[in-house]
Every structure is written in structure tokens, then in C-alpha cells.
Amino acid sequence: MNRSPITRRAGLACLLLVAPLTIHAHNSNTNLPPETPAILDKIYSFDLDGAIEAAKRLEQERPNHPLGYVLETEALWWRIWCTSADFKYGMSDARRRPKLEADRHYFELAARALSLAEAQIKQSESAEMQFYAGMAEASSARLYGLRAENRNAARSGVRGREHLLRAKALDADLADADLGLGLYNYYVDTLSAIAKILRFFMGIPGGSKQEGVRLLEHAIAQGVLTSNVARFYLALNLHRYDQQYEKALKVLGPLAEKYPGNPLFQLALGDLYAKLGRKRQALACYRRASALPVQNVECRARVQDLARASIAALGAE
Q1: Is residue 59 part of a domain?
Q2: pTM across the whole model
Q3: Alpha-carbon distance 306 to 317, whole Å?
Q4: What domain count does the chain have?
Q5: At a CB cut-off of 8 Å and minimum separation 6, what does 296 contact?
Q6: What is the pLDDT along the chain (317 residues), one digit of tens a residue?
Q7: In a domain, 301, yes or no
Q8: In this structure, what CATH number is given to the domain that contains residue 202?
Q9: With contact defined as beta carbons under 8 Å apart, do 241 and 8 qualify?
């Protein structure tokens, strides 16, 4: 079985919670601001500028609550993913990013969300605030991992896992926490033998891919706010690591249909069609991605480059 370079990297932390996303909303005990679903829809629709502006307004309205900062971090992550992606091994993926000064704001937002969540935990512990703390740590872990800062990513990833486990202990029905826990389990179990040895000596808890898939499927089925993003990353991982292209297509298809304006969803869909030998459908997805009106200039150029490389790999123009 051919594995992507991500699997073969000895850097453990690149794989820990690479993409734990969004926030928790539990119907029984969390009152989210009414604009929250619209902000998330902006993110998934790839209106990232609009999402960032709306998240900043939420930060102004609720400066002592982590939600706005988590949402702004989330919107920034998708832009980072886009501008860091390349096309290799028959798929577009964010594999490596240099250390950029522009990343400082992202880390500051994650740190602010963590600080606010931990302050409220000290006053009165809740599953919700443990969840926010876990997502804040995971947000840092994924960018550290992308920048190959392996130790920092591992530390943040493990701390994030601890917060999420505590959130589940406080509220066993917290399906949204299963996104981060599912990704942790999945990635840790796909590490190379060398990386697993490093994990052991660093004292990092192990994981089970099977359990990771189960948790991600639970987040898709029962998550209030993590269903869509859990769907994206489960499909990506089924492609990346397991070569289960048909299953990945079934997982991703509803998301691409719901958000046709997201070029990353279209590229991922095209990659799966290409692996399945469905050239006509793959070309349609790649061309659709290239034609979408992406706001950020750098991201738009990268999407078009990815689309061209994908089309060329099919032997088409």
C-alpha cells in the first residue's frame, strides 16, 4: 500500500490533531449567539472574509467568551490550509508551511481562547469550557504541525486531548468533542514505526484508527456544529491513509453538494473521482474549483495552480 508523505514523516506532531475544527454546542446546556450558525456557514462556503468580520464582531460583543476567537481562528485556518496546499500523490493536501510572521495573529487568537476558557473553568468547570480549551490547544497544534514544529505540536495536541476527554467525562453526550478525539485516535494509529517509538518515549498516549473512525462518524451523525468538518476530514483520511476511495466519496459527496462554492471541497471530490477512474467527473470538479470566485488573492492563485496540476495529472487540458 502506498502511503502519502504525511504518514511517512517521523515527526509525530504533524499528525496530532492536524485539523480539529469548530466549536461545541450542546442543545441542553449551551446558549450560542444566534449568529453562530451563519458564521460557520460562511466558513464552509469559503466566505472567509465575511466569517472573520462576523467573528470579530462576536469578540467585541462577548470579549470574555472564547467562542468568537475560536471562530476567527477557524476561518483563518482554512485560508492557511488553502495557501499551504500542494498537489502530490494524486491529491491536494496541506503538507508543509514555513514559519511566517503572519501566523502570529493566529496563535494569539488560540492563546486568547484558551486563556478565557481556562479562566472560566477555574471559576466553575463545565463541559463547554473544557471543549473550548481543547479546541484552542488543538488549533495551535495543527499549525505547529504544519510548520514542522513537532514538539510544540505534540504538547498542544496532548493537552487538547486531555481537555476534550474531561469535557466528555462531564457530558458523555457531547458528540462535538468526538471530532478532536476521533482525529487524535486516527492520526496516532497511522504513524510510522519510527514515529510510534518516538511517541512512546515522549509519553504521548496511543490511539486506535478504528475508534477514530467511530468517533468521527458519531460527530457526523450527532454533532451539532462539527458534523460538516468531521465529514471533510474523515473523507480526507480515508483517501490519504486507507485508499478507501469509494467510501470517502460517499462521505464527502453531501458536503460538496451543500457547499458548492468551497473550492477545497471541489478539489477533494475531484481527487476521489480521479482515483476511481471517473475522469469526466474529476475534470468537472477541478474546473469548477478553478472558476470559483475565491476572495483572497494568494488562495485563489493556489486553487488555480492545484486545479491545473490535477487536470494535468489526468492527461487533460
Answers
A1: yes
A2: 0.87
A3: 13
A4: 1
A5: 48, 49, 79, 82, 83
A6: 444 443 333 333 333 343 434 344 444 345 678 999 999 999 999 999 999 999 999 999 999 999 999 999 999 999 999 999 999 999 999 999 999 999 999 999 999 999 999 999 999 999 999 999 999 999 999 999 999 998 898 899 889 999 999 999 999 999 999 999 998 888 776 765 545 555 554 566 777 888 999 999 999 999 887 888 899 999 999 999 999 999 999 999 999 999 999 999 999 999 999 999 999 999 999 999 999 999 999 999 999 999 999 999 998 65
A7: no
A8: 1.25.40
A9: no
